[in-house]
């Protein structure tokens, strides 16, 4: 390893991470706010760096990793500034001896807040009624105007009860909700008790819930976890909330379910083919669409950036990065 490793930051991030990296290496960074390098651009720029600090929108596939492994200096690590790392071919990285890290924990509350915000907003028709008011259509209070769905006392189904799912349950307890969950593995009894969670089979959860909130990571096993069959099982009065990953939901099946009235609405932060969104969703009043902002607060994005930087610095100093996802 050269004395000062070469570090590439693929997108403009909040400032606190830069000095941590500049202290140990030579930093090159994309400083064009909002500019996401394409795969070709990454292939042109990344090889020849010891370290990459990447974002969820960067496709770090086997082709890129191989190119980075076959150049001098050889790539040693990808520090992803996200809890999810489905943008990285982790298997290829492991095979090539390239470490990968993520940023768990620091965004859980912020993401749970957004999931709950979407749930409340879609239940109480907030964006829809706001559009109505801004369009100058509010001519007086009406007994039938924008009646929505009660959140207090309703049943929430959480699919994927890890850190974020558990924090959504914590918020739900303030609304006296009954909270069902489905997970790969049943949680320890004390965790179930702490968050008021009842373990439920997936189909039963879908049938019983007034709100279904998705928090599973995107893996081959969760691809289209919510498809035509699952949407049909949901109550016609129920809402789907997705702050996990777009491809966990079959977006075309979701459009169909919404058009057919199989479910009442949806709150979506993530999309199957981001940044593209199924065009039919754009015109649906009962759907809230936000552009993958679940972790977007200044404090959380600062914590994510510095955590990614600290993982990278640890590796460069010969220590074990705290948040490795490769073996
Ligand atoms: C993540 O961290 O995985 C989010 O999707 C981006 O904050």
TrEMBL record:
Gene3D superfamilies: NAD(P)-binding Rossmann-like Domain
Keywords: NAD, Oxidoreductase
InterPro entries found in the cross-reference section: D-isomer_2-hydroxyacid_DH, D-isomer_2_OHA_DH_cat_dom, D-isomer_DH_CS, D-isomer_DH_CS1, D-isomer_DH_NAD-bd, NAD(P)-bd_dom_sf
Pfam families: 2-Hacid_dh, 2-Hacid_dh_C
UniProt-recorded Gene Ontology molecular function terms: glyoxylate reductase (NADPH) activity; hydroxypyruvate reductase [NAD(P)H] activity; NAD binding
A GO-annotated cellular component: cytosol
Stretches assigned to the D-isomer specific 2-hydroxyacid dehydrogenase catalytic domain: 7-325
PROSITE patterns found in the cross-reference section: D_2_HYDROXYACID_DH_1, D_2_HYDROXYACID_DH_3
Entry annotated with the keyword Oxidoreductase: yes
Domain D-isomer specific 2-hydroxyacid dehydrogenase NAD-binding residues, every copy: 116-294
Family assignment from sequence similarity: Belongs to the D-isomer specific 2-hydroxyacid dehydrogenase family.
Name of the protein this chain belongs to: Glyoxylate reductase
């Amino acid at each position: 390893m050269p004395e000062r490793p070469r570090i590439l930051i693929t997108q403009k991030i909040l400032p606190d991470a830069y000095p941590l990296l500049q202290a140990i290496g030579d930093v090159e960074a994309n400083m064009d706010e909002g500019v996401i390098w394409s795969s070709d651009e990454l292939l042109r720029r990344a090889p020849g760096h010891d370290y990459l600090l990447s974002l969820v929108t960067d496709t770090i596939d086997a082709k890129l990793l191989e190119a980075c492994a076959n150049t001098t200096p050889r790539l040693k690590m990808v520090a992803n500034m996200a809890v999810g790392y489905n943008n990285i071919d982790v298997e290829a990285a492991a095979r090539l001896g390239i470490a990968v890290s993520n940023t768990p924990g620091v965004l859980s509350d912020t993401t749970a807040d957004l999931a709950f915000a979407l749930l409340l907003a879609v239940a109480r028709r907030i964006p829809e009624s706001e559009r109505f008011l801004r369009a100058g259509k509010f001519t007086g209070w009406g007994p039938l105007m924008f009646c929505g769905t009660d959140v207090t006392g309703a049943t929430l189904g959480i699919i994927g009860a890890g850190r974020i799912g558990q924090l959504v349950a914590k918020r739900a307890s303030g609304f006296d909700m009954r909270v069902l969950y489905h997970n790969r593995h049943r949680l320890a009894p004390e965790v179930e008790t702490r968050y008021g969670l009842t373990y439920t089979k997936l189909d039963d959860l879908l049938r019983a819930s007034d709100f279904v909130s998705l928090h599973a990571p995107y893996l081959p096993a969760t691809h289209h976890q919510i498809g035509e069959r699952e949407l049909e099982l949901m109550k016609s009065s129920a809402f789907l909330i997705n702050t996990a990953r777009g491809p966990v939901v079959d977006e075309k099946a979701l459009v169909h379910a919404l058009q057919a009235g199989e479910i009442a609405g949806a709150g979506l932060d993530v999309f199957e083919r981001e940044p593209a969104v199924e065009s039919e969703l754009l015109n649906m009043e009962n759907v809230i669409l936000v552009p993958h902002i679940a972790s977007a607060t200044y404090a959380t994005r600062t914590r994510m950036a510095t955590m990614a930087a600290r993982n990278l610095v640890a590796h460069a100093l010969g220590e074990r990065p705290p948040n490795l996802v490769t073996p």
